[in-house]
Specification:
Blueprint lengths: L3 E7 L2 E8 L8 E10 L2 E10 L3 E5 L2 E10 L6 E8 L6 E6 L2 E9 L3 E10 L8 E2 L13 E2 L1 H6 L3 E5 L3 E3 L1 E2 L6 E2 L1 H12 L9 E7 L1 E2 L5 E4 L9 E5 H4 L4 H18 L39 H8 L6 H9 L2 H4 L26 E6 L4 E2 L5 E8 L4 E4 L9 E6 L5 E3 L4 E4 L5 E4 L5 E7 L2 E2 L2 E2 L5 E10 L5 E3 L3 E6 L4 H10 L2 H9 L8 H13 L6 H13 L2 E4 L5 E4 L3 H13 L5 H17 L3 H17 L4 H22 L1
Parallel strand pairs: 10-13, 10-14, 10-17, 15-36, 16-18, 17-20, 22-34
Antiparallel strand pairs: 1-2, 1-9, 2-3, 3-4, 4-6, 5-6, 6-7, 7-8, 8-9, 11-12, 19-20, 19-27, 21-23, 23-29, 24-28, 25-26, 25-32, 30-31, 32-33, 32-34, 35-36
Helix pairs in contact: 9-10, 10-11, 11-12, 12-13, 13-14, 13-15, 14-15
């Protein structure tokens, strides 16, 4: 056995060498990372991989030779490695890029990562699952799998700290987390660390997410991208074998994203792009697939065949991906795929589904760009899933900017849904609608200059069909007045974009963005774009806000219904916001009124919501849904204040 991690140094050059030619699931590769040492500092210099080296035994040694591909545009070059007899107890030599290294065995694991786990009181972290507890594939060994053990089988050492329990300060707190609170928790946690790549990942075990998700991965355009994830205990809790199995898969899946592993149906967006597996990726037996999406029998078929391991391609990435493509805090999730070719319609489309992207005629510079997605059926009724919002990544959006560059919209928060609400599109329910703010995401603002943009979307249906919409033109107008210019500058800051994505936040990291929105309201309150500043401030005031303090306690700021009513009332009177956002605003306004103790006014807001959409001429089927929504909201608010 000679496979594992070797380390060596030649003058100011240090080598981390990974030999992977024998042992458990060998990929038949050699790879390494090169670092430059200067005084007391060490800097990353590049990576290489030999995909198909020649391996032979000779005189008590193992010789490995091949042509290596290097990162960063470095020309390919020959690499030779000699491992002395004894393998893991010995060492050898390596020749890379004209340098010769004496290397010594460091670990049987190819990479080592520190996993820090914090759990909110009441959310019990997962421990272990016995794979033989439930039926599985023939030949898959029965063993006890912890999260660390699952990664150890892939050749990655997870050094897990003792989970710390986060106490909660505040009574009557709603412990359902939203994206803004999770963003703040992550920035607070990583404020103690330097802004640089590190083999460290943080996992927050929380109670539940307001959207009902099982997990998310934090992916921001700062140095801490991919360094944090969260799992939600309420969605996967339980002590039965089925619950323990689901917890194991969720934990391994979310941490897989931190290693820059994409969902199985998104591998073509990886860096470098990878071919999709069977059935557009839905046929992959992988931790990174969704069990309910498995194309060969859904959840039952998945568990009957899943051997509790990563696919061969994922194994290559984990063990031999270039340093910056894998290390937490280095390259972004799917980096290199942000600039893409516009989605092209399929040559043949027999899916019976139609996708449209709709936007208003034009936007002011600095105005949050919100588009509406409409999924409908053509021909006979169709069954599919209801994940139409791009934050769940079953719907992808391409944006072609005025200069001709096409970008993939990438959300700040990547929601792993792990359940699939089935919908039937027919005469009684002809279409599904969702609106999404696509003006800002992982790569910052997408509509930063005036001009004509082209937006196209692709919906990945339940059967793997890829439904591509026609182009939706989005026109951003030139500022006219001095006020237009000033407001646009105030709206287009990076922190402001995050606040629009998160629908407000108390995070001190976003204080400059909040100050800019306050200035829009205070100095330019009559400007048409001030409604969006009020929207963000009103939604944030109306809710409680959970703050992870520096001493690792959870403090809950109570809602401010008075300020919420003040801002949201102004938003509800504005004719410029889209219908779906207006629906959200009026329901949250009703909740703010109820929290002030005025249930009569809260019910009146719901009645006004129904009347508003009737006056807009909304179709009968959607109106029926709005009326039911209004009555359910009244009932829920009455129960909340009783």
């Amino acid at each position: 056995m000679i496979s594992g991690l070797y380390q060596g140094q030649d003058g100011d050059s240090r080598l981390a060498l990974r030999v992977d030619v024998d042992g458990a699931r060998p990929t038949g590769r050699v790879s390494g990372d090169l670092f430059t040492v200067a005084g007391a500092t060490t800097s990353y210099a590049g990576s290489f991989v030999v995909d198909a080296p020649a391996v032979r035994a000779e005189g008590g040694r193992t010789l490995i030779e091949g042509r290596a591909a290097f990162s960063g545009g470095t020309p390919a070059g020959d690499v030779s490695v000699t491992i002395n007899d004894g393998g893991g107890s010995g060492g050898g030599t390596a020749s890379v890029a004209g340098r010769a290294y004496e290397v010594s065995f460091a670990s049987p694991s190819f990479r080592s990562v520190v996993l820090e786990v914090d759990s909110v009181v009441g959310a019990e972290p997962f421990t272990a699952y016995r794979t033989g507890s439930l039926p599985g594939p023939a030949g898959s060994p029965d063993r006890e799998l912890t999260v660390a053990a699952a990664y150890a089988e892939a050749g990655v050492e997870l050094r897990v700290n003792e989970p710390e329990v986060i106490p909660v300060t505040g009574s009557g707190a709603d412990l359902a987390w939203d994206d803004a609170e999770l963003h703040h928790a992550m920035t607070r946690h990583f404020s103690a660390f330097a802004d640089q790549p590190a083999w460290r990942v943080w996992l927050l075990v929380a109670g539940k997410h307001v959207g009902g998700y099982r997990g998310i991965m934090f992916d921001y355009n700062d140095a801490h991208q991919r360094q944090g994830a969260a799992v939600f205990h309420d969605a996967i809790m339980g002590t039965t074998p089925q619950a323990q199995r689901a917890q194991l898969r969720t934990y391994v899946h979310e941490l897989g994203h931190a290693f820059n592993l994409l969902h199985s149906w998104q591998k073509n967006l990886a860096n470098p792009p990878q071919p999709l597996g069977p059935d557009g990726g839905f046929g992959d037996l992988s931790w990174m697939n969704y069990v309910h999406n498995y194309s060969q029998g859904g959840e039952e078929g998945y568990w009957a065949a899943f051997p509790f391991q990563f696919t061969d391609a994922e194994l290559v990435h984990l063990r031999h991906g270039f340093y910056r493509n894998v290390a937490m805090g280095a390259d972004a999730f799917g980096k290199g795929a942000a600039e893409i070719a516009p989605f092209a319609p399929p040559v043949e489309d027999h899916s019976g589904l139609r996708l449209e992207v709709r936007a208003k005629e034009s936007f002011e510079l600095g105005e949050p760009v919100v588009v509406e997605f409409k999924l409908s059926y053509a021909g006979g009724p169709r069954d599919t899933h209801g994940h139409l919002h791009p934050d769940t990544e079953f719907t992808q959006v391409s944006i072609t900017q005025p200069g001709g560059r096409t970008l993939l919209y990438r959300p700040m928060m990547r929601h792993c849904v792990d359940t699939s609400p089935r919908i039937r599109l027919d005469e009684g329910n002809p279409a599904l609608y969702r609106s999404a703010y696509i003006g800002h995401g992982r790569d910052g603002h997408y509509f930063q200059q005036p001009g004509e943009y082209q937006v196209r979307a692709q919906y990945i249906a339940a059967d793997g069909s890829r439904i591509v919409s026609p182009v939706c033109p989005v026109r951003v107008r030139f500022p006219v007045s001095r006020d237009d210019h000033q407001v646009a500058e105030l709206m287009l800051g990076e922190e402001q974009g995050m606040l629009f994505s998160l629908l407000g936040s108390d995070s001190p990291r976003l204080s400059a963005g909040n100050q800019a929105l306050d200035e829009v309201i205070g100095r330019h309150g009559e400007h048409p774009l001030a409604v969006y500043a009020r929207l963000v401030k009103g939604l944030n005031a109306e809710r409680e806000f959970k703050e992870l303090t520096p001493d690792n306690r959870l403090r809950v700021r109570p809602s401010d219904p008075k300020q919420g009513v003040e801002h949201l009332s102004a938003v509800a009177r504005d004719a410029g916001i889209d219908n779906i956002t207006l629906n959200l605003v009026m329901r949250r306004l009703a909740r703010a009124e109820a929290r002030q103790g005025d249930l009569v006014r809260a019910n009146a807001v719901m009645d006004r919501m129904v009347a508003t959409f009737e006056a807009k001429g909304v179709n009968d089927i959607v109106m029926g849904q709005i009326r039911r929504q209004a009555e359910l909201t009244k009932t829920a608010l009455a129960a909340e204040v009783s």
